[in-house]
């Protein structure tokens, strides 16, 4: 008994049939790979920036504020005044107050809130440098762009709150 073996896939030089799923997968593969690499790059950038601090100089004060805060977690803004300090007034813009809850201000302060935001009044001190700390908890999320006034001088700050 003789059997004829004819391979279907290579019969007469033809290529194997390609169904629509295989073609779709092959055409989307570069896009899937690019999106995966982009996701990894953005994730590592956020992880690096999450611990970083933006440093500004406003009216003789050095201000250190987190660049990125995760929603529900705490961050700390630190303001350093060089030399013996007079009374200082710091106003945090309303956009920040809509997304941030202030849990502690050190040293003790009288605070007031109005349409402009939250006003923090710091008493004079003989310490040098004079360090003020404001503890923040992120309640909202997204890019928060807000003004910060230090003794009447304005500086614009951008803070990112990630979910």
Descriptive report:
- By secondary structure, this protein is of the alpha+beta class.
- The protein folds into 2 domains: 18-49; 53-162, Immunoglobulin-like.
- Helix content is 23%, strand content 46%.
- It has 2 helices and 11 strands, in the order H-E-E-E-E-E-H-E-E-E-E-E-E.
- The chain has helices at residues 20-50, 94-99, and strands at 53-58, 61-66, 68-70, 74-81, 88-93, 100-106, 110-114, 117-122, 130-138, 142-150, 153-162.
- The chain has a 6-stranded mixed β-sheet with strand order 3-11-10-5-8-7. A 5-stranded antiparallel β-sheet has the order 1-2-4-9-6.
- A hairpin with a 2-residue loop joins strand 7 (110-114) and strand 8.
- It is elongated.
- The model has no long low-confidence stretch (mean pLDDT 76).
């Amino acid at each position: 008994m003789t059997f004829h073996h004819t391979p279907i896939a290579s019969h007469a030089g033809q290529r194997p049939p390609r169904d629509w799923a295989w073609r779709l997968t092959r055409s989307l593969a570069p896009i899937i790979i690019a999106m995966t690499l982009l996701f990894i790059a953005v994730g590592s950038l956020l992880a690096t920036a999450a611990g970083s601090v933006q440093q500004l100089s406003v009216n003789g004060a050095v201000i250190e504020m987190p660049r990125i805060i995760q929603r529900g977690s705490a961050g700390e803004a630190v303001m350093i005044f060089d030399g013996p300090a007079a009374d200082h007034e710091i106003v945090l813009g309303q956009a920040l107050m809509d997304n941030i809850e202030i849990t502690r201000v050190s040293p003790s302060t009288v605070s007031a809130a109005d349409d402009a935001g939250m006003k923090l009044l710091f008493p004079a001190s003989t310490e040098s440098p004079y360090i003020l700390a404001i503890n923040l908890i992120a309640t909202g999320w997204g890019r928060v762009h807000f003004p910060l006034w230090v003794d009447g001088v304005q500086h614009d700050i951008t803070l990112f709150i990630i979910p």
